[in-house]
Amino acid sequence: MSFQLGSSLLDACVLAVLAKQDAYGYSLTQQVREVMDISESTLYPVLRRLQKKEYLTTYDQSFQGRNRRYYRITASGIEKYEELLKEWVVYKQKIDSVLVGGINGE
What sequence ranges are listed for the domain Transcription regulator PadR N-terminal (predicted)? Predict the structure, then answer.
Protein backbone atom coordinates (compact mmCIF):
# COMPACT_ATOMS: atom_id res chain seq x y z
CA MET A 1 0.00 0.00 0.00
CA SER A 2 1.24 3.46 -0.78
CA PHE A 3 0.20 6.58 1.11
CA GLN A 4 0.30 10.01 -0.50
CA LEU A 5 2.82 12.11 1.38
CA GLY A 6 2.85 15.88 1.50
CA SER A 7 5.63 18.28 0.69
CA SER A 8 6.32 19.01 4.36
CA LEU A 9 7.17 15.38 5.01
CA LEU A 10 9.37 15.27 1.92
CA ASP A 11 11.13 18.45 3.12
CA ALA A 12 11.64 16.85 6.54
CA CYS A 13 13.14 13.71 4.99
CA VAL A 14 15.54 15.72 2.80
CA LEU A 15 16.58 17.92 5.71
CA ALA A 16 17.01 14.85 7.95
CA VAL A 17 19.39 13.22 5.48
CA LEU A 18 21.38 16.42 5.09
CA ALA A 19 21.48 16.99 8.86
CA LYS A 20 23.62 13.83 9.03
CA GLN A 21 25.94 14.66 6.14
CA ASP A 22 26.22 16.56 2.88
CA ALA A 23 24.99 14.66 -0.17
CA TYR A 24 24.84 15.02 -3.94
CA GLY A 25 21.56 14.70 -5.81
CA TYR A 26 21.60 11.03 -6.80
CA SER A 27 22.84 9.90 -3.38
CA LEU A 28 20.21 12.04 -1.67
CA THR A 29 17.48 10.55 -3.87
CA GLN A 30 18.58 7.03 -2.97
CA GLN A 31 18.54 7.78 0.75
CA VAL A 32 15.09 9.41 0.66
CA ARG A 33 13.84 6.59 -1.58
CA GLU A 34 14.43 4.18 1.31
CA VAL A 35 11.35 5.65 3.03
CA MET A 36 9.25 7.12 0.22
CA ASP A 37 8.78 6.55 -3.48
CA ILE A 38 10.32 9.54 -5.25
CA SER A 39 12.28 10.14 -8.42
CA GLU A 40 15.17 12.47 -9.08
CA SER A 41 12.83 14.63 -11.16
CA THR A 42 10.64 15.02 -8.06
CA LEU A 43 13.53 15.73 -5.74
CA TYR A 44 15.34 18.49 -7.66
CA PRO A 45 12.46 21.02 -7.46
CA VAL A 46 12.31 20.30 -3.71
CA LEU A 47 16.03 20.98 -3.42
CA ARG A 48 15.70 24.25 -5.36
CA ARG A 49 12.78 25.34 -3.16
CA LEU A 50 14.68 24.54 0.04
CA GLN A 51 17.71 26.35 -1.31
CA LYS A 52 15.60 29.41 -2.19
CA LYS A 53 14.31 29.45 1.40
CA GLU A 54 17.96 29.35 2.51
CA TYR A 55 17.63 25.97 4.24
CA LEU A 56 20.32 24.54 1.93
CA THR A 57 23.50 25.68 0.25
CA THR A 58 25.42 23.96 -2.53
CA TYR A 59 28.99 23.42 -3.53
CA ASP A 60 30.60 21.52 -6.39
CA GLN A 61 33.19 18.81 -5.96
CA SER A 62 35.09 16.96 -8.67
CA PHE A 63 34.49 13.21 -8.94
CA GLN A 64 36.11 11.12 -11.70
CA GLY A 65 36.58 14.16 -13.90
CA ARG A 66 33.05 15.49 -13.44
CA ASN A 67 31.54 17.93 -10.99
CA ARG A 68 29.00 16.77 -8.46
CA ARG A 69 26.74 19.31 -6.82
CA TYR A 70 26.56 18.69 -3.09
CA TYR A 71 23.84 20.00 -0.82
CA ARG A 72 24.53 21.17 2.74
CA ILE A 73 21.96 22.10 5.37
CA THR A 74 22.22 25.61 6.84
CA ALA A 75 21.57 26.75 10.42
CA SER A 76 18.07 27.87 9.40
CA GLY A 77 17.62 24.49 7.70
CA ILE A 78 18.46 22.75 10.99
CA GLU A 79 15.87 24.93 12.75
CA LYS A 80 13.26 24.08 10.11
CA TYR A 81 14.10 20.37 10.36
CA GLU A 82 13.68 20.45 14.15
CA GLU A 83 10.32 22.24 13.74
CA LEU A 84 9.12 19.68 11.18
CA LEU A 85 10.32 16.82 13.37
CA LYS A 86 8.25 18.09 16.32
CA GLU A 87 5.20 18.43 14.07
CA TRP A 88 5.78 14.90 12.74
CA VAL A 89 5.90 13.40 16.24
CA VAL A 90 2.51 14.93 17.11
CA TYR A 91 1.02 13.94 13.74
CA LYS A 92 2.35 10.38 14.01
CA GLN A 93 0.91 9.99 17.50
CA LYS A 94 -2.52 11.06 16.22
CA ILE A 95 -2.37 8.68 13.26
CA ASP A 96 -1.13 5.83 15.46
CA SER A 97 -3.98 6.41 17.89
CA VAL A 98 -6.41 5.70 15.05
CA LEU A 99 -4.56 3.04 13.06
CA VAL A 100 -3.01 1.12 15.93
CA GLY A 101 -5.45 1.96 18.71
CA GLY A 102 -8.58 1.73 16.61
CA ILE A 103 -11.41 4.22 16.52
CA ASN A 104 -12.71 5.12 20.00
CA GLY A 105 -10.03 2.89 21.53
CA GLU A 106 -11.69 -0.33 20.35
Answer: 14-82
54 contact partners, CB below 8 Å, separation of at least 6: 74, 76, 77
Range of the domain at 101: 7-105
- Whether 93 is covered by a domain: the verdict is yes
Q: Report the interhelical angle of 75-99 vs 7-20 (nearest 10°).
A: 120
Task: Note whether 47 and 24 are within 8 A (CB).
Answer: no
Average pLDDT per block of 10 residues along the chain, 106 residues long = 71 96 94 88 93 97 92 98 94 90 60
